[in-house]
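Lab notebook, page 48
Experiment: co-folding of the full assembly
Goal: obtain a model of how the components sit together before planning crosslinking
Operator: M.T.
Materials (sequences as entered):
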Amino acid sequence: MPKEWETLAKKKREAILEAIPQEWRINNPPNDQQLDVTGAYIHQYLTPREVEITETTADDIVKQTTTGRWSAEEVTRAFCHRAALAHQLTNCLHEIFFSAALTTAKSLDAHYAQHNKPLGPLHGLPISLKDQFHVRDVETTMGYVGWIGTFEGRERTAKSPIFESEMVRELRDAGAVLFCKTAVPHTLMSGETVNNIIGYTWNPRNRNLSAGGSSGGEGALIGLRGSPVGFGTDIGGSIRIPAGFNGLYGIRPSGGRLPYEGMANSMDGQNSVLSVVGPLGTSVAGLRLVIKALLERRPWLYDPLVLELPWRDELEREVSEVTGKVGDAGMVGKLCFGVFESDGIVGPTPPVRRAVKIVVEKLKELGHVVVEWKPPPHKAILSEGMKSWWYDGGHDVKSVFALSGEPMAPQVAFYQDLEKEFSGSEIAATNVRLRQLKKEYMDYWNSTETVTGTGRPVDAIITPLAPFPAARPEMYSYYGYSTWVNVLDYTSVVVPVTNVDKEVDLVDKDYVPIDEGDKKVYDSYDPEIYDGAHVSLQLVGRRLQEEKMLAIAEYVGKAIGK
Amino acid sequence: MPKEWETLAKKKREAILEAIPQEWRINNPPNDQQLDVTGAYIHQYLTPREVEITETTADDIVKQTTTGRWSAEEVTRAFCHRAALAHQLTNCLHEIFFSAALTTAKSLDAHYAQHNKPLGPLHGLPISLKDQFHVRDVETTMGYVGWIGTFEGRERTAKSPIFESEMVRELRDAGAVLFCKTAVPHTLMSGETVNNIIGYTWNPRNRNLSAGGSSGGEGALIGLRGSPVGFGTDIGGSIRIPAGFNGLYGIRPSGGRLPYEGMANSMDGQNSVLSVVGPLGTSVAGLRLVIKALLERRPWLYDPLVLELPWRDELEREVSEVTGKVGDAGMVGKLCFGVFESDGIVGPTPPVRRAVKIVVEKLKELGHVVVEWKPPPHKAILSEGMKSWWYDGGHDVKSVFALSGEPMAPQVAFYQDLEKEFSGSEIAATNVRLRQLKKEYMDYWNSTETVTGTGRPVDAIITPLAPFPAARPEMYSYYGYSTWVNVLDYTSVVVPVTNVDKEVDLVDKDYVPIDEGDKKVYDSYDPEIYDGAHVSLQLVGRRLQEEKMLAIAEYVGKAIGK
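Observation: model returned without errors.
Model output:
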């Protein structure tokens, strides 16, 4: 007889599928029979018009929907259809609310018809949300069986069904259409997405691989163009990893830039290294669009952790005044990039190294300065920062698993071994050390002013976001490339660079692994398995440099033809 | 035989006095023979020119020193003299480094002579610093006997003597002259200033009373015009209390506005309710001057906790465009003030009630809107916020007392009773609750938009900063009026309003105390003892509203003739 949690999980899993209209149901071939389900494969189920709509970037969609050329309803329906397909092919959704979305879309169309102007800058734009957001009349499980039928594990109240996270309110006010919530690993603390409800979320470009995590449902969904832009969260790489693994742009803003208020979370209240919320999507302009739209809502008046920092055009201009446009004769100055290919703890695999080379060579060719980034050792940053995840000795996570009795996925089973909570003194000492490490890094960054020749310190760091293009199941053994950014609270934008080519990205047989940890990652790279996978990098900037980093990422993306 | 700590403390106390040139030594009459040592009393020891210089506000001093009209040396010498007198009359200094200050002043004069322009906006301005700042070649004891001869209780290294706090560097770069460090209560966790080195810091306007704390040395020093402006820190009222008790302006900026980097602290690393650094001085323009000068140094590049928020003229203009100048026909709109006379936990004493009335009536007379402030109960804010002070079970504080074996002053002896540290889970739960309380308060604040009639929510809250004009020794039993501002991380500016008049501020015999705690405060008010004491209020604004709140405080101060 199945256990109670298994029955509950199965019922929920089936309910998600049942929310997909019959006419949108398809057969999902076994992964190994169809590794790549993007492009031509998924097109077979779509009309040319649906393909046109869903392969338009968010910024281009709103050009149509805010001017009445495309109806919100048609756009929404196309994305609902494609999202339904994406879920069947990758297990990327936790919640489907297409009919509510279509109701919203119709009312937006009615608004436009009546006023001849859009409701807001996101009028008619479908936006997907990681399953931490609370949306009216939609459940939030965060992948926990124990949360099914509850409000964050507690009994529902009269208010629970209508409660919405602050950002949801703001997105609606700006005219967005919300239509689905996307899969996460239970606990949120994994770079793979797996839980006992929907199972494993696969990478649509190569179903040998993970879609990433913890915003893995967003990654797979947008990677398959089932959504033009969506919101994830990031405490150790959870926006950037799925963005990178799926060939998307994604930004980890610094803490306090965008509203997290009223969202579910793991280990809520741990405030040494904060989880942040941010968008991932198919274009930098799309990310900028949604961030600007949110900042126009003045979230600092509604979320006590958000800073009063409106969108700063001047930070963008600082970049554009230097670069002009790619290929312009108008380039009047140089940017300076620090290149940080390996952190010396775990080396990147061959395709990631090639991606670094592609970007560095292109930027040099364009006349920019590229210097080696030689920061204070990342080891201390990582070990100190990760302590914040163990402050409560796994108390929060274990108590949620206890609600249902469901088992932990192997990816997060390390929580089993945690026990001892940190004390107030120990947490304070960690905070002091974190501040010192930030200060040292900051001083190093300032010191690069003397080597750039631009009169400024390095503008952005070019660095991997993971040692591999995407993780193989249960093989995500090193998070150092993404996590240091969280510990230092820097701004980082992921840029897609290339795809693995098994003929080019050969195993480097001469590589001498640094240690066992490095060897594990080295051994996990297999050109046959990885062929075709997206390869991405991140561009890291200082704290609260969202405008500048998006501008640089857009420039770099265009430069390398993405 | 005296104990070792007594010998050490005595030696240090004497060394401070010995740093005062012989010709500046005076006899200090017993407190009860000369309650008020300000004004005429201290003038007897000063030349008219010294009085002129030292009774000029910081903003007016730099008009002279940055244009070569007054030499930095003359200005510095005058303040050194008056500071020396102030210390002898109130015990307000921990460190005296007049000769280093005069060397700095001379080099600034030489700079001006050579370049015919000032070094920076603070050229030649003496600035005093609370004894948490590290200054080259100067000790930092923070009032702890155990820190004498050490660097924050640790053995000194070769770098210790030259180490300076980040803000010290920035102040020097802006042209300031540092000349003394001011007294604090050991632990910093008291609204009175007392320690085993310098004893008790008295209120110069009325030596029955405390100068306040924990930046009490700053309060007494500037209250006696021994410094035009100085920097304190505030985690529960420690800038505002001494500013208010000494008839000064003082601002508690929100966290992350000004650089705390490299300063000594108590319970460093507790990051639920952050201690912040900010100025107190004799004019709002003086506070603005030093804050702007610091922000021009871009402290966010040198302190990882500082936000990239340059001075925002537009926030000041929002106020001036509404108010015009006091008495102007140019007043084009109204400000709206929320008045919060009593928090319902402990009621303010009669002179504080009169101060509220003075301000409210004047603002109404000027045509502004004043509404009653009816926020969510402050009790929960206070009890939750103060938990952050007990996170480490007194571990930090007790370990410092253990270094020397010195006893705790009664004002901070509550640390004796602490033992149990908070756990990671408990701290996280506190942080969640604090965020919820902030959100509730924010929602209430937003909701006032419907009652102000100005189209905006309330601009500032008028409220006491303590239930009494100043505390009597060992009678500071309630901190609720200052501490809620820290817990919510709001911006607050203290404004001097009036002085106690024993003929007017009678005991309200009909008052029915709320409870024992309220009765204790009520009973502590005695018109005979309080006669002449400064009475101040605070104007509280939202988070990170420093520009706006200074503008409002300046307007209100002028309106009531301060």
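Interpretation: Chain A has a mean pLDDT of 97.
Next step: discuss with group before ordering constructs.
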